[in-house]
Amino acid sequence: MRCRTLPFRFNLLALALLPSLALAHGDEAKDLDAVVVTATRTPTTVDASLAAVDVIDREQIDASSARSLPELLRGRAGIAIVNQGGLGKLSTLFLRGTESDHVLFLVDGIRVGNTTSGLTSLQDLPLAQIERIEIVRGPRSSLYGADAVGGVIQIFTRRGEGEGVRGRVRIAAGSHGLREASAGLDLRGKRGGVGVDVAHQGTDGINACNGTYDPDTYVGAGCFIVPGTHLDRDGYRNNSAALRADFAPTDAWQFDARASRAEGHNDYDGDYQDNSDIVQQTVGGSVRWTPSDAVQVKLTAGRNTDDSDNHIGSTFANRYTTTRDSASLQGDFGVAKGQLLSVGFDWLRDAANVVDPWSPFARTRGNRAVFAQYQGDFGAQDLQLSLRRDDNDQFGGHTTGGIAWGLDFADGWRVTASHATAFKAPTFNELYYPGASNPDLNPEDSRSTELSLARSGKTWHVQANAYQTRANDLIAWDSSQFKPVNVDEARIRGIELTGSATLGEWTLRGQLGWLDARNLDSGKRLARRPQRSARLDLDRDVGAWGFGVSGIAEAARWDDVANTLRVGGYGTLDARVSWRFSPGWTLQANVVNALDRRYETSAWYNQPGREYTLSLRWQPE
Fold this sequence. Notes:
- This protein has about 625 residues and is mainly beta.
- The chain is about 5% helix and about 60% strand.
- It is built from 5 helices and 35 strands.
- It has helices spanning about 10-20, 60-65, 70-75, 140-145, 430, and strands at about 35, 45, 50-55, 80-85, 90-95, 105, 110, 130-135, 150-155, 165-175, 180-190, 190-205, 210-215, 220, 235-245, 255-265, 275-290, 295-310, 315-335, 340-355, 360-380, 380-390, 395-410, 415-425, 445-455, 460-480, 485-505, 505-520, 530-540, 545-555, 555-560, 565, 570-580, 585-590, 610-620.
- The strands form 6 sheets. It has a 22-stranded antiparallel β-barrel. It has a 5-stranded mixed sheet with strand order 3-8-9-6-7.
- β27 and β28 form a beta hairpin.
- It is globular, with a radius of gyration of 24 Å.
């Protein structure tokens, strides 16, 4: 990596991070024995996983400066977030250089996302409702089907632990009229329990867009805004609730049901629509049967709803209503000691209903799939094989597969290698949007190879990952035909260096990333992907006090396919301090962008300057 070409502030963060990774020799910050399920659809520990996995638990969420899911994920290994104007505004995520709709999102095992755009409304998923996040970097289509080209991010909502009655309350206020309040209650017995969480978040916001418009030439840039209009703040509010219940009548049977709903209002800048009422809802449940240690069968089903009513002022513009119904039946069988065979069937039904005066449409699409996975533990070596066949109503059959191998050697060293194929189904907008679609589109497909080297001590962990993805039949807009077509081929190469440690009372987590993502047909770099990124989190507890800082830096990126619109690199510093002044009570102060840097992640869209938040939390241990 040639750091001499980086901005000066980026070099400083890199220099600060590298020693922390090289000298990690204290108590480990990241629990490598933590159990994750997303990488293999079965429980496995982080250190045993053959994929690059990150876990963000509730303790880290509470300690962070984040006020939203995009803020929490920003700067983490392999992730680039593009935000259009601050809290609550459209936020898209790029994982390992793949497209923003090449990442599969799950909430409690239920597939979520907008079927018209193919995106997940990250900004509308309340952070107050999240217990844990598992991030799997690298293709997982052989287990999950379409969309998992860059990886899978699974969100687990809040859940109670231990018998009895447990509650929690949090209130917060901050810059730009930020106000937050949340509360939760769990009642649990020996065989199950019920729980509820409610939350509110609101902000007056900032002026989201700095676009321009020339009334003489009728040429606009950014949000195409006529000068002198839309100079107000663009606010946001979100009210949410979550319900849950689980029951285990016997040791062999487990029933689980969950429902969450978020309703919000978002103001933004635009000439044809400038505010929206949104609904994000996920309802689902599961039944698990475990007759023995060697057999488990699980049925999961649910529905995700993503609704948006859009207006210009108080005048109705259009309405997008999309749903995803999904079900999965999976059986896990221990065929021998250290050998696990998983087989299953997935069903998915996507639907969209667009009410628009100019371009209404309504569509549905079904998908059925069978999959199988083998996991073998051979002492110092591990092997994973997976194969899946999808049958889709629109594009027919598609087969994906994957192989991964790992070897433990020497003193705490581990090497892994993997190769996998993946695909992305065209969105409803690309297939059916009136006057600007192509029903003959093929799925985008890819093949990825990864090599990883890691070393773990009793209390620390360092890992380096090198990967390459080649994608074919990428969908691009053809202006001559005024429709999307399969034309492009892309190659993505990257290196990630991650590490974590606890040195006495100090906890460190960090990552350095290098990325080369380009369109092989044009030779241009893929838009909105920074070539270099870094993040360092440093925290320390001193008695009842906690102190922490987070430094995030990203190099410049192109904001357009033609590589003519450049968005500059940036570096920000966040700081936090907390005081546990009484059992169960914590007072916390955060400052985001403490150095008040002016920067953008999307051309023409402002980012807030320095912001403060003060919160009070009650959560008995």
